[in-house]
Every structure is written in C-alpha cells, then in structure tokens.
Design a protein that fits this description.
7 helices; about 90% helix; rod-shaped
Length: about 290
C-alpha cells in the first residue's frame, strides 16, 4: 500500500468514526424513509410517463386504422370507376398502414408489459415503505427510550459530559474559595504582626504596642478592683466582725477595756488609710 493509499485509508477511517459519533439514528431513519418515498414517487412518475407514451401510440394506431378504412373505401370506389391503377395505389397505402399498425401494436404491447411490471414494483415498494415506516417508528421509540435512560443514568452517576463539567466547576469554585480563605488569613496575620501599615491611620507599630500595654494595664487594674471587692485583694481589709472579735480577744487577754478601745481605733484608722491608698493607685493606673 502506497503512501497516498494509506493516507486516504486513514482519512476515510477517521471520517467514518466521526460520522458514527455524530450520527443520530432517528434522523438517519427519517432520512431513509424520505428517500424511499422519493423513490416511490419516481416510480409513479415513470408509470405516468410510460402510460402517456402508450396512449400516444394507441391514438396513432387509431388514426392508422381510420386510414386503412379510408383506403378500403378508395379502392372500392376506384374499382367502380374502372380505375384499377387508383385502386392498386389505395391498396398499397392500406398495406403500408397495416404494417405500421402491426409495429405500433408491438410497441404498445411492450409498453403495456413494462407498465404492468412498474405497477407491480410500485405496489411492492409501497408495501416495503409501509413496513419500514412501522419499523422506523418502533426503532425511534426504542432509541429515544434508551437515550433518555442513558441520560438519567449518567446524571445519577455523574458520568455524563454535563455532570463532568459541573464537577469541574465545583472543583474550581472550591479551589478559588480555599485560595481566598488562605489569602484573607494571610492578610489578617500580616495586619496583626504589623507588617502592613494602616493606610488610614498615622500610628506606627510602636504606637500600637503602647496602646496594647495600656489596655493590659487597664485589664489588670480592673482585675485588682474585682479581687478587692471580692475580699481577695492585697492587703486584705478586715471586716467589722473580725475587728470586734480581735478586740474582745485582746481585751480578755490584757484585762483592760480602755486599751482595747485604743487599739481598735488605731486598727480602724490604718484600714481606712490602706483602702484610700489602694483607690489612689487604681485611679493613677486608670
């Protein structure tokens, strides 16, 4: 096989494979049905043309037959007139017309046979077309049902081209979403680390760190206040019950109520001083 032959063979093979993929059985069946109908129409036209030709010959035959009868009358009249020469000429014309009639009859018979054959073929072809039409509709219904079933199966399993495109679209959307999430997280991290300066603010990293320290100090001060209010601060303030209990103990130990009163006043004064000192510290921190 030469190069050109191999190339032609490969091209035909690929073209045939492409046509097989692109072929729609429903369209192919409809086209074949229309081709058969066109062929039937051609047969009918052929029968009509043949019949027309036969009718022309039959009309010509009738004219010749009329001429034959005319020549007979001419021959009789010539004999009556003792004109044998005219009678002979009339009979010669009659014979020529009879010969033509015989030829026409043969042609008409041939046309009739052809016409009968065409009519028989037309009826056979028409029956085949009706059978093909029934099979065509059955095959189209089966193909459409199979095609619908295949589409449903492909949609359920995700094996179809459209579902494949949808799957790729979802994958691309997920990738873009992950990229945007990662970028947003990176921007937040860089913003927190101070790598990017705020374009709308005139504060630098040092200002932000000082503000953070001030915020921490406020939190610590508030925590100390809460601890003081809950009785857990340093130094711990003695309650009136504890003070009275201590006074009673001291008074019972020393045996002197006067000294106990003096000590109580001194302890109360020291507690008030310590409380005021703590409040000053807290105000200074705030």
């Amino acid at each position: 096989m030469g190069i050109l032959s191999r190339t032609s063979y490969i091209i035909r093979s690929k073209l045939n494979a492409f046509l097989n993929r692109a072929e729609d059985p429903s369209e192919t069946l409809d086209y074949s049905y229309e081709q058969l109908r066109d062929e039937l129409q051609d047969v009918k036209r052929g029968i009509a043309d043949l019949t027309t030709q036969k009718k022309r010959l039959e009309m010509q035959k009738r004219r010749l037959e009329e001429n034959v009868e005319k020549h007979n009358e001419q021959a009789r009249e010539a004999v009556k007139q003792d004109r044998e020469d005219l009678a002979r000429r009339a009979l010669e014309k009659k014979k020529a017309k009879m010969t033509q009639i015989e030829e026409l009859e043969g042609q008409i018979a041939d046309l009739q046979n052809t016409q009968d054959q065409l009519i028989e073929k037309k009826e056979t072809l028409q029956n085949r077309i009706e059978e093909f039409r029934t099979r065509k509709e059955t095959m189209k219904a089966r193909y459409e049902a199979a095609e619908a079933s295949a589409r449903v199966s492909e949609a359920m399993t995700g094996a179809g081209e459209e579902m494949e495109d949808v799957g790729r679209a979802i994958e691309r959307a997920e990738e873009r979403t992950q990229d945007m999430e990662a970028r947003a997280a990176a921007m937040d991290e860089l913003q927190e680390s101070g790598a990017f300066e705020d374009a709308l603010s005139d504060k630098d990293q040092i200002d932000r760190e000082l503000e953070a320290l001030g915020s921490d100090s406020q939190v610590e001060a508030e925590l100390e206040t809460l601890k003081s209010e809950m009785g857990k601060g340093e130094p711990e303030a003695e309650t009136e019950e504890e003070t009275e209990a201590e006074i009673d103990d001291v008074a019972s130990d020393n045996g002197s109520d006067v000294e106990a009163d003096v000590d109580l006043e001194e302890e109360i004064d020291e507690s008030e001083v310590e409380a005021e000192l703590e409040e000053l510290k807290e105000e200074e921190e705030n």
